[in-house]
User: Which sequence fits this backbone?
């Protein structure tokens, strides 16, 4: 059967025919030749095309219309920037765009849709360009790009307002270059951003996005290089980073906030993690409430490209909130050890001393071990030799343990140090050494504890 042909200009006149009233305009199984251009027009009826083929792009820029549908159609493009739709926009199962075209496939920049946007099963073709350009788009309903949705070119929703959410479960975005952007959601405002099972060979951007409920990358595959996911300053209630496999690049979450973060070490990115300024209230616990393994989380922090103290302080605060003081202290100790690597020779030497003696104040019991070991050593040495009294017949009898402690504790006294001395140079040298060690231990204990209290 011969293909039915209709002229685009004639279709436009029929759509705008006021005598038809509010009865929807419907066209099925036709080839539309020429251009269907309705820029700036006032459409008082819903329009629906089904299984139609258009020779030229459909243009509705600046128009006012009711619901608009291109279902299972083929067309070089849809131009609808600043268009106001009084109902749903339905582009399901359509093939839109040109492989060698100069423009993108679908232009909805600053469009206003009173209903939702349906792109389920659609294929948008704009290699090297923007396949779906929806910056500033405002909808009242949801945006659906599921059920086999494919975009050959970037998908962009920068600054869009989608109170019904963005649903791209199982979607495929091909941009052909790992350093190109596959999805741009900078400044996006939405109730949900559901990207479960998304496959993208380029980068994902969500800088400054504001998402009320969930941003989910569960089972997603991100092939972008550099930053596979850039979400600097993003705000959301819940963030799911349980990818299908490790992203090819890094993940940048600097200055972002998520009340809940769910991830897994097996799918941490191949590249670096940007965590400076990231805040959260709940982190990767299991459904039965088992607490997060601090060893894994410290490995998570080590994936930062450069040292920053805030991620360690945030993690320690998280553990303290749940009463896990041991984990919090361990995190802060690792923070100091990591910081030490950034210091000069003098700072590193002082850091090593603080670490070895009191664990930077987070392990003060180490000083007790040093004190016990040196007390035992001194007591054995002093007990094996005969001390010389400073003044015969004065002072308490010699006690090797008390004498050793008196040497190492610079504050107060046990009445031994000023009463006895040694004729042997080696033993007297040990006594001087214990006095020096006592001052070092005291200084590091005070410095370490002060540091811990001031920075914890």
Assistant:
């Amino acid at each position: 059967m011969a293909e039915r042909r209709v002229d685009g200009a004639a279709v436009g006149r029929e759509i705008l025919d006021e005598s038809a009233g509010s009865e929807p305009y419907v066209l099925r199984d036709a080839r539309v030749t020429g251009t269907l251009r309705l820029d700036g027009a006032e459409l008082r009826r819903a329009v629906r095309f089904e299984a139609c083929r258009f020779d030229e792009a459909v243009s509705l820029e600046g128009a006012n219309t009711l619901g608009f549908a291109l279902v299972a159609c083929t067309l070089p493009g849809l131009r609808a920037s600043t268009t106001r739709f009084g109902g749903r926009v339905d582009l399901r199962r359509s093939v839109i765009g040109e492989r060698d075209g100069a423009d993108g496939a679908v232009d909805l920049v600053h469009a206003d849709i009173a209903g939702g946007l349906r792109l389920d099963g659609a294929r948008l073709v704009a290699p090297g360009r923007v396949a779906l350009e929806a910056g500033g788009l405002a909808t009242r309903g949801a945006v659906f790009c599921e059920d086999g949705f494919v975009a050959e070119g970037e998908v962009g929703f920068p600054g869009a307002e989608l109170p019904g959410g963005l649903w791209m479960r199982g979607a495929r975005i091909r941009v052909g270059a790992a350093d190109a952007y596959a999805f741009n959601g900078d400044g996006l405002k939405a109730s949900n951003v559901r990207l479960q099972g998304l496959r993208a060979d380029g980068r994902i951007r969500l800088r400054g996005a504001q998402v009320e409920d969930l941003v989910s990358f569960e089972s997603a595959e991100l092939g972008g290089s550099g930053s596979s996911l850039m979400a600097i300053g993003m705000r959301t209630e819940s963030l799911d980073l349980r990818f299908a496999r490790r992203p090819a690049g890094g993940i940048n979450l600097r200055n972002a906030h998520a009340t809940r973060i769910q991830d897994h070490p097996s799918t941490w990115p191949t590249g670096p993690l940007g965590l400076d300024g990231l805040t959260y209230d709940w982190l990767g616990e299991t459904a039965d409430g088992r607490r997060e393994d601090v060893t894994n989380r410290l490995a998570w922090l080590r994936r930062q490209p450069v040292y920053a103290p805030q991620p360690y302080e945030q993690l320690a605060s998280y553990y303290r909130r749940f009463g896990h003081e041991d984990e919090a202290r361990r995190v802060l100790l690792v923070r100091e050890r990591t910081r030490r690597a950034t210091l000069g020779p003098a700072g590193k030497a002082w850091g090593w001393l603080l670490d070895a003696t009191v664990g930077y104040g987070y392990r003060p019991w180490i000083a007790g071990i040093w004190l016990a070991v040196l007390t035992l050593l001194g007591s054995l040495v002093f007990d094996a030799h005969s001390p010389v009294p400073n003044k015969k017949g004065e002072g308490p009898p010699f006690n090797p343990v008390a004498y050793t402690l008196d040497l190492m504790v610079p504050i107060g006294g046990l009445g031994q140090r000023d009463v006895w001395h040694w004729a042997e140079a080696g033993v007297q040298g040990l006594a001087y050494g214990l006095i020096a060690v006592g001052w070092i231990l005291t200084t590091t204990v005070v410095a370490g504890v002060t540091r811990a209290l001031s920075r914890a």
Residues 5-277 form one domain.
